[in-house]
Specification:
The chain has 220 residues and is α+β, with helices and mostly antiparallel strands. It is built from five helices and five strands; from the N terminus they run ααββαβαβαβ. It has helices at residues 2-18, 26-88, 125-137, 155-175, 200-206, and strands spanning 94-97, 103-107, 141-147, 183-187, 209-215. α1 (2-18) packs parallel to α2, α2 (26-88) crosses α3 and α3 (125-137) packs across α4 (155-175). The radius of gyration is 22 Å and the shape is globular. It starts with a helix and ends in a 5-residue tail after the last strand.
C-alpha cells in the first residue's frame, strides 16, 4: 500500500511539474494538474478496495477522470479570460489569472474613479458594459469587486469610499442585466497599496478597484 501510493504520488508530482511548462496552454496545464490529483486519489481508493491491482487501476482511472475535470475547469475560465481581454483591449485594464484559478481585472484610476469620488467615469462605462455582457454569457461564474483608495484622507473617509466604489461598479453591472446575487463587494480603504503613496503617480495606481471572477462549485 505504501509503495503504491508513493508511486502514485511520484506520478502526480511529475505531472504537476509538467503542468508548469511554459509552452503549455492553461487548458493543458489544468489537464495535467487534474490528472496528478486524480492519480493519487484513485490509487489510494483502489488499494483500499482491491490491493495492488486495484491501486494500479485506480491510479489510471483517477488520472483520466482528473484530467477531464481539470480540462473542463480551465477551459471555461480560459474562454472567459479571452472574452474579458477582448472587452478591455486598449483600455489599460489588466486581465490576469490568479493562482486559485480566478480571473482578475485591475481597473486603474484614470479609467475608474476621480480623487474622492465613487461615481463611474464616462470612459469606465463602456468597459463595464462589455464586461457585463461576458458575465451574462457565463452564468456559471460569480464576481467579487474590491475597492481601494490612496492614502489621502483619513480611514473614516477612505474606508467607506472604497466600499462605495465597489458598490458603484456592482450597481452598474446589475443595471446592465447581471444578477445582483452573483456579486459581492468589499472595500479595503488605503490598507493595500500597490505603489508608493508618496508620489502622485503611486497614489493614482492605488486608487483603483479590482474585479475577480470565479467559477461556481458544482452542485453536489
Amino acid at each position: 500500500m505504501k509503495s503504491i501510493t508513493q508511486s502514485a504520488s511520484c506520478i502526480a508530482v511529475a505531472i504537476a511539474m509538467l503542468s508548469g511548462c511554459a509552452n503549455m496552454t492553461e487548458t493543458q496545464q489544468g489537464t495535467a494538474r487534474g490528472a496528478g490529483i486524480g492519480a493519487v486519489a484513485g490509487a489510494v481508493l483502489g488499494a483500499a478496495v482491491g490491493g495492488s491491482r486495484g491501486a494500479a487501476t485506480g491510479a489510471v482511472l483517477g488520472g483520466a477522470a482528473g484530467a477531464v475535470g481539470g480540462n473542463i475547469w480551465s477551459k471555461k475560465m480560459q474562454d472567459q479570460k479571452v472574452a474579458m481581454e477582448k472587452a478591455t483591449v486598449g483600455t489599460g485594464v489588466a486581465v490576469t489569472q490568479t493562482s486559485d484559478n480566478r480571473l482578475k481585472l485591475d481597473i486603474p484610476s484614470d479609467v475608474s474613479f476621480d480623487v474622492g469620488r465613487s461615481d463611474i467615469k464616462s470612459n469606465f462605462g463602456p468597459i463595464l458594459n462589455q464586461f457585463g455582457s461576458t458575465l451574462i454569457q457565463h452564468p456559471e461564474t460569480n464576481i467579487s469587486i474590491t475597492g481601494h483608495t490612496d492614502s489621502t484622507g483619513s480611514d473614516s473617509i477612505n474606508n467607506p469610499l472604497s466600499v462605495d466604489r465597489a458598490n458603484a461598479a456592482r450597481d452598474f453591472l446589475v443595471g446592465r442585466g447581471v444578477a445582483r446575487n452573483r456579486i459581492i463587494t468589499d472595500g479595503r480603504g488605503s490598507r493595500e497599496p500597490v505603489a508608493d503613496n508618496g508620489t502622485s503617480q503611486g497614489r493614482d495606481k492605488n486608487r483603483r478597484i479590482e474585479i475577480y471572477v470565479a467559477e461556481l462549485a458544482p452542485a453536489k
